[in-house]
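Hey, resending since the last one bounced:
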Amino acid sequence: MLPIREGEEQAKTNQLYQQWFEEHSRKMYELSQTIVNILNRLNEFPDEINQRLESEEYLAIVRKAFRIWDTSDTLEKKEIIRKLITNAGAHSIVHDDLIRLFLDWIDTYHEIHFAIIKAVHENTGITRYEMWQTLNGTDVREDSMEADVFKLLIRDLSMGGVIRQHRAVDYYGNFVKKEHVKKGTSGRTMTSAFDDKESYELTELGKQFVHYTLNELVARVEGTKT
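The structure tokens again:
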């Protein structure tokens, strides 16, 4: 018979093993359901995509995707990965290098980043104030933690090439410089984190990311080749 202390330690060890087993069983079940969902979706496509699905390039994307899927904490992010894998198997709208970039974005960004991306996608020309109202809806100070976090999120997505301030373009697609307006001297405060003047939009790369991750079995984007 084990001493009381050793018996308690063994009980704790057994409990940890049980928790580990239950967690991995849950993950395996979720993974199997995800794979079945992907295969069911892809089976709706003609046999011509079989070559794509069996290619080493696509299988490499799937392996990377499921490594990220395994470390994702929320069903929301796992759903984004599932849609990306499905659409990447059915279409070749963008190069596989960009699909891998999209996977890096999914791995790096948090659900709140994706909430901003979705808000900009659904409301082209949205301002930072309108984004904040969509995400939170409460008024906070400019020097608050909430304002700091919000600025960080916008900076992440802007520097990452997902969103940008709206820019006018000419007939040939060149960005037109903004006319500099002489500012008055009365204002003493900096531009608000929740500015309601400058509008934002998805970059072209951001649009492709949304096309692959927010839609089920995307159709061909106008002006692109499959």
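The chain has a mean pLDDT of 81.

Sorry for the duplicate.
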